[in-house]
Amino acid sequence: MICARYGLRWRVFLKRRLSRLKQILCFLFVFFVGFLGFLLFRRLKIPTSGLLGSIFATGILNAAGYYPEFEIGTFSFLAKAATGVMLGRRINRELFVHIKDIAAYVLLVSIGMLVVSLVTGYTIYYMLPDVSLATALIGGAAGGIAEMTAFGISMKEDVVTILFMQLLRVLFAIMLSHWIALLVGKAVPGKNAKPQLRINTKILYFYRSDYVLLAGVAFLGAWLFNTLKVPNGIMMGAMLASGFLAVFIRKTYRFGLKASYAVQISLGLIIGQYVTPEVIGGLQRFLLPGLASVIVTLTGSVTIALILNKVSPLDAVTCVLCTSPAGLTQIAFISEEMGADPLTTSIFQVCRLVSIIAFYPWIVQAIV
């Protein structure tokens, strides 16, 4: 009897270990595919090659039906938390004055993107008359893919249409934001460019033991914000926790380019999971309205960026990235690569997401 009991426990223990090993191996396989995409895009000299290359390679893998099934939640948590830690390095005592200075401009962008979302939604509705107005408005929102899809499910709308429109917006925004920022930066004089916030170079760097504390504090912040359901809470919690830790102990930390690429590839494979056969199958029906919605959204965001550039002390490139309808974490990496201030763009992007997630559902329900 005792031997049978211990034998059962051993089998359960072994089964759990094998399941975890399978999860890790599946992740490593998908990560390797994303890494190959990164190498290809870097060789082609495509901007943000880690992110875009990973999305491209893993998206093809998923659309072909070879994306292995594994629990991506843990890996997504770690990737977003690592992104937050990287952004937290920008937090210093000067930041709080900076936030106060840009509060009015953040409000301008948030309201502007709400209007752009409505215009995009109506564009989809008139180009797809067989789709409900609510589906079109949700599909055109410049919010998060997961949040808008969940809102569509709660309203029992066409989730496939919403997901396709949201995914198309994010993919094109990620691909084009770098080029649009460059074009606008060249076209608009940089006479009002504001120096980026820099960390005081006299501050000491972390010791090895400090990085253990940093990891623990960042994980705790990410877990807390995610539990409280703060929009993009994992990244925001890790960013604020790690940043405030650095301010508190009067040191700063650093990370290598390889770490940045690894996080970009991890984020890319998470987005690649959304490129399903169902989404590819909807290309014939949704491609033209989807492209039209992307054009409307990007045109609207660039218009707001130009207005922001006129009324604020921010340079044109930063303004474009502040109003870009791509994902927050992706824009943070693009900002870093282009030499813009990723923390400033993150503040604008977070407020854009919060305003749409908080207020847009009420607007849609009032309209329909």
Entry summary:
This protein has helices spanning 2-43, 49-63, 73-88, 94-127, 133-139, 145-154, 159-187, 208-227, 233-249, 257-272, 277-281, 283-311, 316-323, 328-338, 342-367, and strands at residues 204-205, 251-252. The chain is mainly alpha-helical and 368 residues long.
**Rg calc:** 22 Å
Strand content: under 5%
Q: Which architecture per CATH?
A: Up-down Bundle
The name CATH uses for the topology is Na+/H+ antiporter like fold
Q: What is the spatial order of strands in the main beta sheet?
A: 1-2
| CATH top level assignment | Mainly Alpha
**What general outline do the C-alpha atoms trace?**
globular
Q: With helices defined by DSSP (H or I, 4 residues minimum), what is the helix count?
A: 15
* Category by helix and strand content: mainly alpha
Question: Considering DSSP H and I runs of 4 or more, what fraction of the residues is helical?
Answer: over 70%
Unreliable stretches = 191-201
- Number of distinct beta strands: 2
Q: Mean pLDDT across all residues, rounded?
A: 81
Instruction: Provide the number of structural domains.
Output: 1
